[in-house]
């Protein structure tokens, strides 16, 4: 279970939206194998009946007063964009051509 | 009042603050002295990714004017500071050590940065770090590593190696850090400086580029325990912009640092942190520090935290899982780099995203994102992320049981002294082991501090002792840290950084 094939890593990289080169894939397969073998140690811990902990502080429903306050203007928000047009982010095509 | 050294960059922040308050020196003088030092030595140390001389001097002048006008100013007003490049700074580049954010100038300040500005601390520049804080050496910075001022061929720790080396090379009296698994404490240990990871939620995370949101905590870095406490008091406190920030006053850290007492305190030595894999010289300095604490009136016992054995594995599942989600925002659409895939006509947004993330992220970031994607994927979730969350609860329970017996826990901060640049770069697991003693605190959310314990006999390099306290009891770190620091400095005959080699001015950085 803890060993990953090259195809597995390529699939995961696709899910993570990272286009790995062949050389990167080769290297990653070996490295991830070693890391996964090591982290699989969590499965040996005495966790029967233990409730999972997702966060150090038991917080629920943190709210703040619903008041209007200043926010960033369009110019400031778009200043770091790779491309902007008509006060909007300009992005590559989002649909397939066919 | 303490006499200031002729070279202002050698003074503590507390002494500088005192001299500024009494009008003996101006903030412009102090700030300029540090900018001169940066120009003289940062070519060798490479602590800064960006230096803002004009901005720092403008802030310094403003503070000097406010003081002349008779305004009541904060304790550190006029004392310059270096800011880790993971914190957004309006008008100043913020890269997180990554190519994907090269040249990005945030439109807003992190809450921590706003607090620094309000308190009148001129910002000298932004410090180097492992890319998105993933690493223990700064070698994963896309802009090249920082160097350890004790030996320029060695690592300054990471991810906050820019901030630790800034302090150890006297390029700033104070610096900010963030600590997800040890990124404040381990760099402090290997450079003979001081660093605190406050209780989770003690300092706002608003405007900090997130690595792992349930583990990340910003904190203060300094050369003395008191300086670190003074900065902690400025950085800490509730922030409505961070819903996980603690809605309570900052613990009385400055008072604790000034009182510097461990009389009657119960101190637990963590059995699981300090055995196999710990360098003999690190161990020896730790044992001496523990003996000193006993001489100072503390009661020392051994405490067992059996589940710490699983902490590293737990961390390297939880962190990549959260990081893979947090770093999804680097999508080449709203900010940062955009790279078009080669040989594709009219590429889709997804293809552009994938090409950009390949070009913009370094190898460690890619490794952790893919590991996290795997740990969260259906079919493996229970075995990996789910198990890790349960072990996390066991580790928190170990802390609860330990703190039922003792007031604070201690261990060596890092298992070894600074290693050579390049030594562990090709072996991710070896790199991860540097944080073995610091990770449990992040998993449980409890506060921790590292202070220098001395130099290891075998290599003459700094070692650190870690102090851990229960959540919201951050002041205990400062009580113990300041008491031990005073006793150690007395034994050494002066601050340990006085023994660091002089950096030559030969390789001065161009303007």
Overview of the molecule:
The complex is a heterodimer of chains A (98) and B (511). Chain A is mainly alpha-helical and 98 residues long. Chain A has a domain at 6-44: Orthogonal Bundle (Histone, subunit A), CATH 1.10.20. Chain A is 34% helix and 4% strand. Chain A contains 3 helices and 2 strands. Chain A has helices spanning 6-15, 22-39, 74-78; strands at 84-85, 88-89. Chain A has a two-stranded antiparallel ribbon. The longest helix of chain A has 18 residues, at 22-39. The radius of gyration of chain A is 23 Å and the shape is flat. The mean pLDDT of chain A is 92. In chain B, the strands form 2 sheets. In chain B, strands 4-6-5-10-11-9-7-8 form an 8-stranded mixed β-sheet, with helices on both faces. A 3-stranded mixed β-sheet of chain B has the order 1-3-2. Chain B has a domain at 10-262 and 447-499: Amidase signature (AS) enzymes. The two termini of chain B are 36 Å apart. With 511 residues, chain B is α/β, with parallel strands linked by helices. At the A-B interface, α1 and α2 of A face α10, α11, α12 and α13 of B.
Could you list some keywords that capture this structure?
heterodimer; A: 98 residues; mainly alpha; Histone, subunit A; two-stranded antiparallel ribbon; 3 helices; 2 strands; flat; B: 511 residues; alpha/beta; Amidase signature (AS) enzymes; 8-stranded mixed β-sheet; 3-stranded mixed β-sheet; 16 helices; 11% strand; globular; disordered C terminus
Chart the SSEs and their pairings.
The complex is a heterodimer of chains A (98) and B (511).
Chain A: H1 6-15, H2 22-39, H3 74-78, E1 84-85, E2 88-89
Antiparallel strand pairs in A: 1-2
Chain B: H1 13-22, H2 27-45, E1 48-51, H3 53-68, E2 81-84, H4 111-118, E3 123-127, H5 161-168, E4 174-178, H6 185-191, E5 194-197, E6 218-222, H7 225-235, H8 253-259, E7 266-270, H9 280-295, E8 299-303, H10 311-326, H11 349-360, H12 363-376, H13 382-405, E9 408-412, H14 428-432, H15 439-444, E10 448-455, E11 462-468, H16 475-492
Helix pairs in contact in B: 2-3, 7-8, 8-16, 10-12, 10-13
